[in-house]
Amino acid sequence: MGSFGTNISSTTSFSLTGFPEMEGLQHSLAALLLLLYAISILGNILILFIIKEEQSLHQPMYYFLSLLSVNDLGVSFSTLPTVLAALCFHAPDIAFDACLTQMFFIHFFSWTESGILLAMSFDRYVAICNPLRYSSVLTDIRVAHMGISIIIRSFCMVFPLPFLLKRLPFCKANVLTHSYCLHPDLIHLPCGDTTINSMYGLFIVISAFGVDSVLILLSYVLILHSILAIASQEERLKTLNTCVSHICAVLIFYVPMVSVSMVHRFGKHAPEYMHKFMSLVYLFVPPMLNPIIYSIKTKEIRKRLYKMFLKPNL
């Protein structure tokens, strides 16, 4: 037991790595990441502001979009401190508990995003398959309950991860692959048995992301069935167009997420920069693209942006 305690207390910090293989391009990479952060943060704040100010957007679909924007801001702010420290200020060290806290929030927001996308697919299913019952099914109170349930589910799933790591002795090199703390990266460092950590991580991936993605796919099978039953081709395209933003949001979240999971678990012989690149795509692309997609595809948001930036006197 004394040895166990010594091993844990000896690891007071981790060292985060950026892209040492791109040493000559560190400043360009830092500038690119800062630009992505700026687009993500400003874009999502704009979405929240427009939904708050535009009375016509006070509907369930846009309440879920607001929750998605808040969640994307959470993703950006979770990674921002260590990415700035490692790439801009050359201060890669992070305290043990701070690293576990960052890991918790990164994964918490990831699980929450999956739940929000599932709720948004349910919104599209009700709007297209049962339009006459839309207002009675998706009441404000029910939307609030769905949002709270998504947050509670994510918290309960991610909460054990830091404690499962803290019970292990960290006596190997404390260098992490990324500029932020991720669970798949951290479980490679302990010299104890990490079987429980790996199994629990796989369990919550399957029970959350797996179930959510299957239910989203099922909802779109039902939506497509309803759309094909519409006689007019013009009406079919118009109805399908209401789902395009959500379909894009699902793809830009799940494709990188599945890729990261596969690379970490089965791509052990892949170059290290491949792991880093996939994680960057997973954490940076959805928060940046979601507000852009919804701004382009949502007429009310597009009109408000036009008034704000192109015709400020209107």
UniProtKB/TrEMBL annotation:
Coiled coil (residue ranges): none
Keyword check for Cell cycle: no
Family recorded in the similarity comment: Belongs to the G-protein coupled receptor 1 family.
Lineage: Eukaryota, Metazoa, Chordata, Craniata, Vertebrata
Membrane topology per record: Multi-pass membrane protein
Single annotated GO MF: G protein-coupled receptor activity
UniProt xrefs under Gene3D superfamilies: Rhodopsin 7-helix transmembrane proteins (1.20.1070.10)
Domain G-protein coupled receptors family 1 profile stretches: 43-294
Keyword Cell membrane: yes
Superkingdom assignment: Eukaryota
Database matches in PANTHER family: OLFACTORY RECEPTOR, OLFACTORY RECEPTOR 56B1-RELATED
Protein name: Olfactory receptor
Compartments (UniProt record): Cell membrane; Membrane
CDD domains referenced in this protein's UniProt entry, alphabetically: 7tmA_OR51-like
Primary localisation category: membrane
Function (record text): Putative odorant or sperm cell receptor.
Chain segments annotated as transmembrane: 29-51, 63-92, 104-122, 143-165, 202-228, 240-257, 277-296
Species of the source: Nyctereutes procyonoides
Biological processes annotated in GO: cellular response to lipid
Pfam families the UniProt entry points to: 7tm_4
Record GO cellular component, one term: plasma membrane
Keyword field: Cell membrane, G-protein coupled receptor, Membrane, Olfaction, Receptor, Sensory transduction, Transducer, Transmembrane, Transmembrane helix
